[in-house]
Design goal:
heterodimer, A: mainly alpha, Butyryl-CoA Dehydrogenase, subunit A, domain 3, 3-stranded mixed sheet, 51% helix, 9% strand, B: alpha+beta, Butyryl-CoA Dehydrogenase, subunit A, domain 2, 4-stranded mixed sheet, 4-stranded antiparallel sheet, 13 helices, 14% strand, globular, binds flavin-adenine dinucleotide, Acyl-CoA_Oxase/DH_mid-dom (chain B), Mycobact_Acyl-CoA_DH (chain B), flavoprotein (chain B)
């Protein structure tokens, strides 16, 4: 019965997540996610590549970023969901030598729980120009291929995804597990951001002559959202530090993120229900993460 | 003799040593009759064991673990305190009666007490010789604690206290009580209160037992009828009572109780897996409870890690701790009860009733949510 477990990210995770945070905060300062979710990225791929940030996950003889470190980075990334295949590339280059040999962004073709057991796969950022798809994550084999024909995936719009009818990518057990954790972690970032937006809104929006955040029903919704975000954050840290039952844990993480998102939507009233307000982009990311985590459950 | 699972201490040598020492001590210290046949003990027998346990803790060097050495504590940290609570719960150690004194009175006296109070009260408290109880709630002042009406009126070199406190846990065993009382009825709310340290045996103090829904008697009503308390037993200045009470409520919601609760929840859940793990209709519920329980353990570890850094991340993590464990335990107890396992009937009946208290004391969970939203998220009052 162990209680004192180290939950902190390592130095790499601390440094990288702070740096990524600075970069994306600067790129998105003063803009809302609506400005770029379906439009041009506020950040160029080159900016990430020049800093070497796409290589941050590389393991050299076991040295380098641990999954816990990548969780710290993915959480930060999830707060803005800039439409670049950043997390995908980090994981691809972590688990594939051939992916490392390519300078540009790399993604893969994932099974998801709604694509069913056939050959359909989901390629995050499959619509992204210049992207390569790696055919094996984990192990020494695999190649890089150009993106095949497919249909745009409609749920996570920031991810510019494509649905294809070929399997394309094989995953080792470790790669599949890590991917589930990374998408769970970016969902936690998205949930944290939604909570932040909900709190700001509740302080500003006036009804009955006072801020809605002074009504206890609204306060308790947001307190419950914080409880969910905290629980999700802790659970994703746990998922990154263990190898057993990880996919079950990641499903729990994403579920708690969606719990928080629903509460934040409610707090926004009709505004939250609009496309324009843009909260749905974060929720879409979580719902997609849920499908991915569910799909990876039976993988390899 | 078994050794401590190395994971307990994440490779920290000092913590490992501490855990090993604690585990060894617990193995011999916990009374066999408590460990093996607690349910068969009479009320007096059980009280006697719990009473003795407080003295044992001191003799073993485990009283006031995270308390400063200068004041007779062990001078260790939250990590050691949590480890000890986990190991003690795991070893099925009794819960002494000195808990209120150690977790509430001691930090309060160190923070706001006089040198005389520190010298007079801390040593017997840590030795487990003087037991304390908490005189905050009143019939008309529960969540709205600032509405207490118990009066403390100046009388010579002290005060006379008159009023009625209620839900006083361990009043039956306590030697002393700390009382929040009105000293200045004309002062504005929050400025009218003071804190006093009162002898439970002083003339004018009397108690009435109150039976709880589980059938047990662990709290009481405490009456004060012109009870004299010397000025030197006032903590802080007149009018500081509210501030001192608020600081103290922060101590009440800390990590060591959560640690002990985690162990209890884990053991309840293990019982459920053993007896009902093969029931398909319970599979999803048990799986989710397992996730939540292990997340609680990691959350506690996260709180400890963040404590040193302070700041917003720590404030967030620690603020949700009580809601997390209390609501989790209530669900486990409910699922356990509803599983209707004949052999465990008494256990689950008791747990179900007992678990109803945890979302009420130390500030109800509604009040916790008010605090989270106002103090942590910064929403307007
Ligand atoms: C087992 C146990 C041990 C205890 N031990 C002690 C002790 O040793 N010493 C001591 O002083 N006290 C003790 N208490 C008392 C405890 O602190 C109070 O019960 C608690 O503060 C709630 O007060 P109340 O019971 O008067 O409920 P009330 O304050 O009357 O609350 C009733 C309901 O209304 C809700 N409510 C009240 N105000 C608000 C609000 N502003 N916003 C939203 N909801 C609200 C509450 O959440 C609750 O659901 C103990 C209680 C229990 C159950």
């Amino acid at each position: 019965m162990n209680v004192l477990i180290d939950t902190k990210a390592g130095e790499i995770g601390e440094l990288a997540s702070e740096a990524i945070s600075d970069i994306i905060e600067r790129a998105t300062a003063g803009t809302s996610i609506t400005a770029y979710a379906e439009g041009e990225s506020p950040l160029s791929w080159n900016a990430l590549e020049e800093g070497g940030w796409d290589l941050v996950g590389i393991l050299d003889d076991g040295e380098g970023a641990q999954l816990r470190d990548i969780v710290a980075i993915a959480q930060v990334w999830g707060t803005r969901l800039i439409p670049l295949p950043y997390l995908e590339t980090v994981i691809a280059k972590r688990h594939s030598e051939i992916a490392r040999s390519w300078d540009g962004p790399v993604s893969f073709a994932l099974p998801t729980s709604t694509l069913g057991p056939g050959k359909q796969r989901y390629v995050p950022f499959g619509q992204f120009a210049g992207l390569r798809v790696v055919t094996a994550l984990g192990g020494d084999s695999g190649q890089l291929i150009e993106i095949p024909e497919g249909r745009p995936a409609g749920l996570d719009l920031c991810a510019r995804g494509l649905e294809v009818d070929v399997i394309l990518t094989d995953f080792s057990e470790t790669a599949a597990r890590e991917l589930a954790v990374v998408y769970a972690a970016s969902s936690v970032g998205a949930a944290r951001r939604m909570l932040e937006l909900g709190v700001t809104f509740a302080k500003e929006r006036q009804q009955f002559g006072r801020p809605i955040g002074s009504f206890q029903a609204v306060k308790h919704h947001l307190a419950d959202a914080l409880i969910a975000v905290e629980e999700a954050d802790t659970a994703v840290i746990r998922a990154s530090r263990t190898t057993e039952g990880v996919r079950q844990t990641t499903e729990f993480v994403v579920k708690r993120c969606i719990d928080a998102a629903e509460l934040v939507l409610q707090v926004h009233g009709a505004l939250g229900f609009t496309w324009e307000m843009g909260l749905h982009y974060y929720l879409r990311h979580m719902l997609t993460a849920q499908e991915i985590v569910g799909g990876l459950r039976n993988c390899p | 003799m078994t050794t401590v699972n190395n994971d307990v201490c994440a490779g920290d040598a000092d913590l490992s040593d501490f855990a090993l020492r604690a585990e060894e001590w617990l193995q011999t210290a916990v009374p066999v009759e408590w460990r093996e046949s607690r349910g068969a003990l009479s009320g007096e027998e059980s009280d006697a064991i719990r009473r003795e346990w407080d003295l044992q803790l001191w003799r073993g060097g485990f009283a006031g673990i995270a308390f400063p050495k200068d004041f007779g504590g062990q001078g260790l940290g939250l990590a050691e305190d949590v480890i000890f609570h986990v190991l003690a719960a795991k070893a099925q150690a009794p819960d002494g009666f000195s808990r209120v004194g150690k977790t509430l009175v001691a930090p309060m006296v160190v923070r706001s007490g006089t040198d005389w109070q520190k010298e007079r009260y801390l040593p017997p408290l840590l030795r487990g010789e003087e037991l304390w109880c908490q005189g905050f709630s009143e019939p008309d002042a529960g969540s709205d604690l600032a509405g207490v009406r118990t009066r403390a009126v100046r009388d010579g070199d002290g005060y006379r206290i008159t009023g009625r406190k209620t839900w006083t846990t361990f009043a039956q065993h306590a030697d002393r009580i700390f009382v929040l009382a009105v000293t200045d009825p004309d002062a504005p709310r929050y400025k009218n209160l003071s804190m006093f340290l009162v002898d439970m045996r002083a003339p004018g103090v009397s108690i009435n037992d109150i039976r709880q829904i589980s059938g047990a008697i662990h709290f009481a009503e405490t009456h004060f009828d012109g009870v004299f308390v010397a000025e030197r037993d006032r903590v802080g200045n007149e009018g500081d009572g509210w501030k001192i009470a608020m600081e103290l409520l922060g101590d009440e919601r800390g990590g060591s109780e959560a640690a002990a609760r985690y162990v209890e929840i884990r053991s309840d859940l293990d019982l459920l897996f053993r007896t009902c793990g093969d029931r398909p209709e319970l599979a999803n519920a048990l799986q989710e409870l397992d996730e939540r329980t292990e997340t609680l353990r990691w959350h506690l570890a996260k709180v400890i890690d963040l404590e040193g850094m302070g700041g917003e991340a720590f404030a967030r993590a620690v603020s949700v701790l009580k809601v997390l464990w209390s609501e989790l335990w209530q669900v486990v107890a409910r699922v356990g009860f509803e599983a209707h396992v004949p052999a465990d009937r008494e256990h689950w009946r008791y747990q179900f009733f007992e678990s109803k208290a945890v979302s009420i004391y130390s500030g109800t969970n509604e009040i916790q949510r008010n605090l989270i939203s106002e103090r942590v998220l910064g929403l307007p009052r």
